[in-house]
Design goal:
Blueprint: H1 17-20, H2 82-91, E1 96-104, E2 107-114, H3 117-129, E3 137-144
Parallel strand pairs: 2-3
Antiparallel strand pairs: 1-2
Length: 145
Amino acid sequence: PDVNPEPEPTGPRPLPTTATVRDEANWNRAADPAPSQPGTWVPASGPPPLPTRAPTEPNWRPGTTNPPPVVRGQINETRADPIAELVKQLCAGRAEGVEVRYAGTKKLVVCFEVRGKPSAEKLVADISARPELTAYQIDFCVVVK
């Protein structure tokens, strides 16, 4: 009972005969002979290219060939900023050199000059107490003369 099986070959095995038997001579045969010189270019053979259509005007606006130009732009700001106008109205007759600047979408910088510390504190409190300005963070820069 010495049975020694033959070792399996570890190299590549041949393909089955059904996969290797085919007519290699007729497979993908070219209709034209190959170019005589290597590296030369020849046009591809095949059906002729489809005819191209001439560009036509768009038919979305019948009767017009050249639409009028469209002018776009920003309109001038003819009306004043209501927040800045409110602050300037509160400071009218009480402060000089009033400036209102936006430091962000919800942040204002209000600068002015007043005589005396009590009038500065009163004006800052009056501006801060306005209900129209509660949505804004207001930074004050006050010069006391």
